[in-house]
Amino acid sequence: MSSQEKETSNSLYRQWQILSRLSTGKWMGTRELQEILQREGIDISLRTIQRDLNQISLRFPIESSKTVPQGWRWRSDAPIQSLPHMTSSQAVTFMMVEEHLKHLLPPSLIEEMNPWFDLARRSLSTQNNVRQWINRVRIVPATQPLIPPIVEKSAQQAIYEGLLQDKQLECIYQRRSHLSEEKTYVLNPLALVQKGAIIYLICTRHDKTDIQTFALHRFKAATVLTSRAMHPVNFGIDAYIDSGALGFRVDYNKPTENIQLKLTMSEQDAHYFDESQLGKDQTIEKIEDGLAQITATVPFTTQLVWWLRGFGHKIQRIEPIEVFHAVREIKD
After folding, report:
1. What structural domains does the chain harbor?
2. How many angstroms separate the CA atoms of 240 and 139, rounded?
3. What does the pLDDT look like over 275-328, one tens digit per residue?
4. What backbone phi and psi angles, to 5 degrees, belong to 6?
C-alpha cells in the first residue's frame, strides 16, 4: 500500500469513528471527539477534527451548532439508514425495549433512541417471520393486574434526569398517609425500581442518612439542582432489594430482618416450591401423614405476609410464631 493509500485509509477510519459517535439530539464538541479518538489510539489535533467534520458535512446530513465552542450532531431529518444496517435480531430487541422498558428510561435517552425505534419498526415491516415474534411474546404479571397510577410527566422527567446526572432534586411530594399534605424535600436520588404497577425512587433526604422509598406518582413537582447527589457508603441497589426493603417493613419502628420461614402443607401443594423456590437455602422435607415442610431464609415483610395469606387453608402451619400472628391479624 502506498503512503497516499495508507493516509486515505487512516482518514476514512478516523472519519468513520467521528460519524459513529455523533447523535441526533446531543451536540458533541471537538474536544470530546478528540478524547474519544485518543481512547481508540488515534492521536489527532482539534484542527484536523474540525476539518474532518467540515468535509463530512458535505456528504452526510450532520450540522454545526455555530457556537463557540462548536458542537456537531446528526440533523433531525437525517435518515437513520445513514448509520449501520440493523439486523432482524437487533430490530426485535429494540421493539421489546420500547414496549417494556420505555417508561423506565430518561426522556432525554428516549429522544435519542427514537430514530432507532423507528428503524426497528421499518426493518420488521419487511420481515414477516421476525415481525410476528412481537405478536407472539407477552409479559404478564403473576398477581392481579393493576392499572398503573398517573405520574406527573414533568416531575418524572426531572427525577430521571437528576438520577442520570447524579444531581440533587428539590421535590414537592404528597404522602399517602396525609393526602391533603404536600411537603418539599431535597433528595439524593440513588435508584429506580419498578414493583408491579408502581415505580419507586430510592433515595436519601438531604437532612437524613437513612435510605427511603418514594412512589413516583406522588411527586407533584421536581427540579434538578446543580449540587451533586450524596451517596451512602457501600449502597448497592441489588443488596438493597435482596434485604427485603421493597417488601416494606412489618414494624416501621424496626429494620427488616431475615427469618427462617417454615411452612407445613400437603406434599401435593408443596410441589409448587420445587420449581419456584423461596430462597437459595430452601429445603423440602417430607413429614407425617402426607405432609411436607418447606424451610427457607426470607425477609420478614408485609409483602411476605400478604403472599402467605393468598395460600389460604393450604398452609396448615406457619413458623416462626410472629409470622403466623401477622398472617392471622391480616385475615381477621
Report:
1. 3-76 (1.10.10.10), 85-134 (no CATH), 153-242 (2.30.30), 258-331 (3.30.70)
2. 25
3. 888 888 999 999 988 999 999 999 888 888 888 988 888 899 999 999 998 887
4. -65, -40
- 38-76 pLDDT per residue, tens: 877 888 888 998 998 998 888 888 888 888 888 998 887
Burial of 63 (0-12, 13-18, 19+ CB in 10 A): middle
Looking at the chain, which runs of residues are DSSP E strands? 28-29, 62-64, 71-74, 167-174, 182-195, 198-205, 211-215, 219-228, 258-266, 283-286, 291-299, 317-319
| Cell numbers for 257 | 430482618
List CB contacts of 25: < 8 A, sequence separation 6 or more. Answer: 73, 108, 111, 112
> Which range has the top average pLDDT, 7-16, 44-53, 121-130?
44-53
What is the DSSP annotation of 84-139? PPPPHHHHHHHHHHHHHHGGGS-HHHHHHHHHHHHHHHHHHHT-HHHHHHHTT---
Choose among 297, 293, 300, 299: nearest CA to 317.
293
pTM above 0.85, yes or no: no
pLDDT value for 9: 64
Helix axes 107-125, 88-101, angle to 10 degrees: 140
Give the tens place of pLDDT for each residue, 215-257: 999 999 999 999 999 998 888 888 888 777 776 666 656 667 8
CB 203 within 8 A of CB 189: yes
DSSP for 205-216 reads ETT--SEEEEEG
Q: How far is CA 303 from the centre of its chain?
A: 22
- Angstrom CA distances, 218 to 6, 149, 151, 155, 199, stand at 61, 9, 7, 10, 10
Q: What CA–CA distance (Å, rounded) separates 302 from 314?
A: 20
For 199, counting Cβ atoms within 10 Å of its Cβ (0-12 exposed, 13-18 middle, 19+ buried), the class is buried
How far is it, in rounded angstroms, from Cα 105 to Cα 270?
A: 39
Structure confidence at residue 332 (pLDDT): 41
